[in-house]
Amino acid sequence: MKLYYDKRLKDPTYYAQQGIRNGKKTTTKNIKNFGKHSELLKITDDPETYVREEIKKMNEEYRVGRVTFNLTANFNEKVKHTQDEASASTCLNIGYFVLQDIMKGLNLKTFFKQNISECKNTYDSFKILRFLTYARILKPGSKLSTWNDLNSYYEQPEFDYQHILRFMDILEEHYDVYLTWLYKNSNAVVKRDSSIIYYDCTNFYCECEQPDEDIVDEVTGEVICGLRKFGISKEHRPNPIVEMGLFMDSQGIPITMSLHPGNTSEQTTAIPLEKEVLKMLNGAKFIYCADAGLGSYSIRKFNSMGGRAFIVTQSIKKLSNTLKEAVFNDYDYHLLSNDSPVTIKKMTTFDQYSKENLPLYNDFAYKVIFADKALDIGLSEEITLKNGSVKSRKSTGLLRQRLIIRFSRKMMEYQRSVRRSQIERAKKLLARKDPEEIKKGPNDVKRFMKRISHTKSGEKAVINYVLDEEKIAEEEKYDGYYAVATNLEDRAQDILAISHKRYQIEECFRIMKTNFTGRPINHRLPNRIKAHFMICFTALLVYRLLEAKLDEQHTHITPENLITTLKNMNVTNVHDIEYMALYHGSKALDTLMELTSLNLDRLHYRPKELNGKIKKLLN
């Protein structure tokens, strides 16, 4: 602040004048009126020296963050007129500063300099990626809506919508390099633990009604498959879908991903992507963990080599009769909590409502069964028969594995409760006497109904539907049982604990689909679809890294509270002098400020203070 007065006047008025730089805009404002020269003579012999001393005190207070401004308001003044079709809010979000504090560790600015510098772009690729990532977390929507909302961020970036589309094309060209860069540089943010990796697949539906057609190259004959294909949708939607495979580490942080046409069998996606993970990890040893759908014998065989191991869930219904007999044999079961012997008969008959039995109700019984499997190793050998002829025979290898069978009384009661309600629904369907076409799904209540027909000689057959008691009894046998297959020789408790963490990968999918609105897919071109998911993956990585850093502080914030807090951290410009916060404090805000030291829990901010914060985060 400095002294200002009109030297041409005989009785000038003295002002404290503040120079203000707000982004590219520079201005000055008279923030305090000390009065006229003649008025100040009543309290001092030298008004000019007096005012300079007062301004010096004000500068000192301003330096430490305390200052008093005299502002005037004209209640007849109208809002600033623009040529926009609709009025826009003047609130500016600064919550994304927290996200950028995580992103700076990924060193993406260097990535674009090294990999895209040869492209003669008229736009900043790093800036576009930043705001596409922020928007996917804070304001998920189409790329056009993201572009329309750029003025809602403190930096108010300037680039055109077509620049976003061109950037997505370039980003997709660096698919593998980009994902590898994210993984390796994320170690600078959080120490990654890839000793155990989890894999799962999901699908995202598209905003279209027809699938993509396959294109055949007329020269090479190569078939280029479209991504949007009809497949088994987990939401049971009739739209074409795109399938995603995702690898995650033991902390719930994504490692890499792959995209496939919607009609691709997920069984065929694991090994190719795992080979890419091996390159990223420089051939490091790890434990592969997945559910039964991604635990085929070929995948188990692949993860029995190179020092790797596997832990996959196993369907008890699909075991051989010999192994089923071993599972249901009420022998050699132990409690998971203390390894004391227990029988399934005891687990299924104790009084579950008794308080003294509550520890047993929450406990598990387990047993270990050796279940080695002979597999085709892809080689053949020639053998000589007794008659002297030579025959080629496939060579087999032995896959050594153990089955860890777990039984839970609590799970048994839950499954039987669900089945009872399904049986009641099946009875209501039978009462209608009109289920001519019964389609039985694995979880459909109609699976408990069977069709019987009987006739007398020469008469038309009478068709009836009754409850299939045999089917119900067969299903009840498996209530409460859960199996895991592994080639590790560790304690059953440790292996089951590793398998239990598979829920985190489902949480990753839920965040992408629900919180980040990754579906429906509005893009048509395959390269744009891939780029869309690369941006979603970046947003998921940034969010999970933020969660991991919070876990290091032994704090947890739900995705809803965390995203809501960042979204509501808005400020407004007050006469170009300061920015005032339009949000209040919360537990989530306190935790974030303790983590980042950004000091964004203040009510007032000087423009140069916020400018300095974002500049520091981008360097």
- How large is the count of helical segments? 21
Whole-number radius of gyration? 34 Å
Please report the total strand number as a whole number.
22
Separation, N- and C-terminal Cα atoms: 29 Å
Widest β-sheet, arrangement of strands: 9-8-5-10-11-19-16-13-12
Largest sheet: 9 strands, mixed
Say what oligomer this is. single chain
Poorly predicted runs of 5 or more residues: none
| pLDDT averaged residue by residue | 88
How would you classify the helix and strand content by structural class?
A: alpha+beta
Estimated share of beta-strand residues:
15-25%
Globally, the shape reads elongated
Percent range of helical residues? 25-40%
Short description:
The chain has 619 residues and is an alpha+beta fold. 37% of the residues lie in helices and 21% in strands. The protein is built from 21 helices and 22 strands.
